[in-house]
Backbone:
């Protein structure tokens, strides 16, 4: 899992286990599309005056989001990167990506802990392929260094950050992006309200009274 | 060859004879453990407790090994309580007890227990009390100097170093059945460690964290088991 060579440290994050969330599923059929860099994300950084760190998230992000969305939605299909939303026959297409990865070592923070920040972005497209939401989220993980060295602590901090993102997505995704409104109206509702239209995206900030909104607010952590 | 082995074994034994008593004796510490009871407590057969760290999102630095230490100490010995592993509890209730999402006070408990599956899972695990630990161990001051050298004829150290550690922890006890705070227990332990060295360093370590762990665990056990009115 971990290899140390000279003045560099390499940390590989294996597939983290994210438990089945205790939430009701959103009644949607969704597809998820991963950008190529998301499937094998590697962060390299040289800490000034110290060693070089290479953090390989491998396929752990893909595994995390696939398991997470499978727990959150009635139906999930993983599609390849070239798939277009309009051809999929699903209610929504979700495209997660990583905007930024940062970490701090004990020597930088003057504590005994490693900390990791991951900034994800989740784009949601409706069944016509129009972007419906664009949601940046900041996740944070922190782990005390151990006598075994920093590699294990940094890996744990990264896993905790991914788990933090998962918790945030479970709790806030529908509230923030209103993805559940992309569901197909039931036959009875269509019969009762023939004028019903699917929600149209706008660029407005989310407002309680306005159901149709693209979200661009950052649900971020204030720590660190 | 055998003579050389005997020589090194003899030196190792002599070294251990000097160093081990120092480690075992330790240095002086002062400890204060206090509790504040809000409601009466008590625990039935089949009920257990779970020990959690306050969220690091709130700046808490409680070490995982301290939480494990308190859990082990509470579950051991006569009258040991059933301690549900915190990882198992947090996983079973995902995402409601994550560092970002865990309730910060008991006011949030009624709403949390209304969420699908939460009350059932807590009941299934047999959790009666959630103990939230806050605090850490810090090196507050230190001084002295110690230098070591190695040469062809051997090596050795000379000097004197000292440092003071303060361990300050607080446990908040939540009664999940009554949906209220049962009270708090605080443990403050400070101690100074010494490291004199004349050829061989002799560590006299003040184990403040271990002492805080034991003090807090003993008091927690008594606090929960004793059916005392507030």
Residues:
């Amino acid at each position: 899992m971990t290899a140390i060579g000279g003045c560099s440290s390499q940390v590989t994050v294996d597939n983290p286990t994210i438990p089945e969330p205790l939430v009701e599923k959103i009644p949607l059929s969704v597809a998820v599309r991963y950008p190529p860099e998301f499937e094998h994300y590697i962060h390299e950084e040289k800490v000034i005056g110290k060693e070089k760190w290479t953090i390989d998230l491998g396929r752990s992000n893909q595994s995390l989001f696939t398991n997470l969305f499978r727990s959150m939605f009635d139906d999930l299909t993983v599609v390849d990167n070239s798939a277009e939303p309009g051809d999929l026959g699903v209610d929504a297409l979700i495209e997660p990506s990583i905007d930024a990865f940062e970490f701090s070592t004990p020597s930088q923070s003057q504590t005994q802990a490693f900390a990791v920040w991951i900034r994800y972005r989740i784009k949601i497209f409706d069944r016509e392929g129009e972007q419906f939401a664009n949601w940046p989220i900041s996740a944070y993980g922190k782990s005390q260094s151990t006598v075994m060295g920093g590699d294990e602590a940094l890996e744990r901090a990264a896993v905790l950050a991914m788990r933090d993102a998962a918790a945030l997505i479970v709790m806030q995704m529908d509230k923030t992006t209103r993805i559940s409104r992309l569901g197909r109206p039931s036959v009875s509702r269509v019969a009762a309200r023939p004028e019903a239209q699917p929600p149209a995206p706008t660029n407005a900030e989310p407002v309680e009274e306005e159901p149709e909104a693209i979200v661009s607010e950052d649900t971020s952590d204030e720590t660190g | 060859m055998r003579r050389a082995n005997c020589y090194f074994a003899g030196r190792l034994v002599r070294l251990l004879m000097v160093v081990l008593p120092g480690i075992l004796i330790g240095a002086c510490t002062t400890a204060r453990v206090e509790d504040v009871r809000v409601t009466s407590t008590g625990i039935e057969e089949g009920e257990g407790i779970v020990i959690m760290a306050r969220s690091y999102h709130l700046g808490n630095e409680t070490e995982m090994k301290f939480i494990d230490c308190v859990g082990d100490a509470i579950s051991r010995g006569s009258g040991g309580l059933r301690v549900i592993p915190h990882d198992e509890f947090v996983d079973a209730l995902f995402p409601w007890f994550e560092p970002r999402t865990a309730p910060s006070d008991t006011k949030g408990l009624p709403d949390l227990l209304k969420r699908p599956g939460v009350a059932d899972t807590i009941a299934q695990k047999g959790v009666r009390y959630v103990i939230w630990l806050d605090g850490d161990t810090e090196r507050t001051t230190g001084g002295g100097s110690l230098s070591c050298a190695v040469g062809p004829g051997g090596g050795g150290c000379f000097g004197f170093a000292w440092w003071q550690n303060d361990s300050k922890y607080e446990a908040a006890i939540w009664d999940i059945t009554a949906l209220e705070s049962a009270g708090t227990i605080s443990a403050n332990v400070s101690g100074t460690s010494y490291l004199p060295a004349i050829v061989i360093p002799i560590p006299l370590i003040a184990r403040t964290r271990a002492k805080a762990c034991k003090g807090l665990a003993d008091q927690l056990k008594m606090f929960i088991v004793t059916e005392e009115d507030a």
Observations:
- The longest strand of chain B covers residues 127-151.
- The beta strands of chain B are 29-37, 48-53, 83-84, 127-151, 154-175, 180-201.
